[in-house]
């Protein structure tokens, strides 16, 4: 590692289009460690036995309607949720990854590591909707301008429902993190520098 880290494992929670992956990538490069985001899926596929399509569809999102159906069906002894199985696989993958210095984006990693007694530095990234709409348009060119905010709100809501079900708390609760940063105000580079200073002790 290029810097000595006080916290070998960093988790990054984020609002949709708050540049979580970008910040993680830059941090990983500066620290000389790996980061995991979308490449998480292949590891969960191997651990869970589900197809890649199913894991992609269910990996970090749960709509209100889906949660209602899951809650109704969970009262049936013979019912086993694919969400539950995928999450259990995800927990194992997170714990395995945390055996080495790394950065993990999303996936309830802060909660999973806390439950496992693994020390980590937990970051939450957010930004105002205007800032995030620009990023959303870049990532989803098929969306019209008037669809962007609705899409962002839906992804945020589905992630929040998923986090509440499996982490047992509100994804927006600042007590779940060591620091919450407004990427829209700070900018990506200043956000990276702030996290670096905190995890290495270098100002």
Describe this structure in a few short sentences:
With 203 residues, the chain is an alpha/beta fold. The chain is 54% helix and 11% strand.
Number of strands: 5
Helical content band: 40-55%
CATH architecture label name? 3-Layer(aba) Sandwich
Q: Sketch the topology as an H/E string, one letter per element.
A: EHEHHHHEHEHHEHH
- Under CATH, the homologous superfamily reads P-loop containing nucleotide triphosphate hydrolases
Which consecutive residue ranges, at least 5 long each, have pLDDT under 50?
62-80
CATH topology: Rossmann fold
Radius of gyration: 17 Å
Give the biggest beta sheet.
5 strands, parallel
Report, as a whole number of angstroms, the end-to-end distance. Answer: 17 Å
CATH class membership: Alpha Beta
pLDDT averaged residue by residue: 85
β-sheet strand percentage: 5-15%
Helical run tally: 10
Shape: globular
Structural class assignment = alpha/beta
Strand order of the largest sheet: 2-3-1-4-5
How many structural domains can be distinguished in the coordinates? 1
């Amino acid at each position: 590692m290029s810097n000595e880290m006080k916290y070998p494992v960093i988790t990054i929670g984020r609002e949709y289009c708050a540049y979580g992956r970008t910040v993680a990538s830059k941090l990983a490069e500066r620290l000389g460690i790996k980061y995991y985001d979308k490449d998480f899926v292949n590891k969960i596929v191997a651990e869970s036995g589900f197809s890649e399509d199913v894991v992609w569809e269910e990996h970090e999102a749960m709509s209100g309607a889906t949660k209602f159906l899951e809650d109704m069906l969970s009262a049936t002894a013979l019912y086993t949720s694919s969400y539950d199985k995928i999450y259990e696989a995800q927990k194992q993958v997170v714990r395995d990854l945390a055996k080495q210095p790394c950065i993990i984006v999303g996936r309830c990693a802060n909660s999973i590591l806390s439950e496992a007694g693994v020390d980590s530095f937990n970051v939450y990234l957010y930004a105002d909707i205007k800032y995030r709409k620009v990023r959303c348009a870049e990532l989803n060119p098929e969306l019209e301008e008037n669809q962007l905010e609705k899409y962002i709100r839906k992804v945020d809501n589905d992630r929040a429902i998923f986090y509440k079900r499996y982490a047992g708390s509100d994804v927006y609760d600042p007590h779940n993190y060591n620091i919450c940063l407004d990427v829209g105000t700070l900018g990506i580079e200043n956000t990276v520098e702030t996290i670096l200073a905190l995890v290495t002790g270098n100002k």
